[in-house]
Design brief:
The chain is α+β, with helices and mostly antiparallel strands. Helix content is 60%, strand content 15%. The protein has helices at 44-67, 69-73, 76-79, 82-90, 96-117, 119-131, 137-149, 157-168, and strands at 2-4, 11-18, 24-31, 34-36, 39-41. Strand 2 (11-18) and strand 3 (24-31) form a beta hairpin. Helix 7 (137-149) packs across helix 8.
Length: 169
């Protein structure tokens, strides 16, 4: 379920709930990324090539990374610099595990955008992430290349996540 809300901040968030019949329902709540003549503006390309992929992606990535929380915590000393900590906090992520999820989701979004919308869009998204302080995304994008190239060995991301963590060590 996609909900465009003019009252949200630029960006969005993911929400989940169980329906009355016990099925998981996933929501991407997305705010405007600007305004024109004082009216909220939703850029269709930005929503399609970034926000939808990213916000819905939380429903798939977060449960996997939750299973590897202890291993991810061990990466904190290596990657959670003062700069990255500040970048995360400025965007509402006050713990390493949330910053890690954001980095992974942003890398995943870049890979999916590249596959479905072209390399130019993927490179544009990567440069946006780097310039916003999430430069570690570039390393994760490269690690996801290994996943893409070995899908018979790792048919699901759940099987590749420990490999990604190990490569980051």
């Amino acid at each position: 379920n996609l909900i465009l809300s003019p009252f949200l901040h630029t960006g969005g968030f993911n929400a989940e709930m169980l329906s009355l019949n016990g099925q998981k329902e996933v929501y991407a709540l997305v705010g405007p990324n600007g305004e024109i003549d004082f009216l909220p503006y939703f850029d269709k390309d930005y929503i399609e090539t970034d926000m939808i992929l990213h916000e819905f992606g939380h429903s798939f990535v977060n449960p996997i990374t939750d299973r590897y929380e202890k291993e991810i915590e061990k990466l904190k000393n290596k990657y959670y610099s003062k700069e990255l900590e500040k970048t995360g906090k400025d965007q509402g992520y006050n713990e390493w595990k949330y910053v890690f999820n954001e980095l992974l989701l942003r890398a995943t979004t870049i890979k999916i955008a590249g596959k479905h919308f072209g390399k130019d869009i993927a490179n544009e998204n990567l440069q946006k992430e780097i310039s916003s302080g999430f430069g570690l995304v570039e390393k994760m994008v490269k690690l996801l290349d290994e996943y893409e190239q070995n899908r018979t060995k790792y048919p699901t991301f759940d099987l590749f996540c420990p490999i990604l963590i190990e490569r980051m060590k």
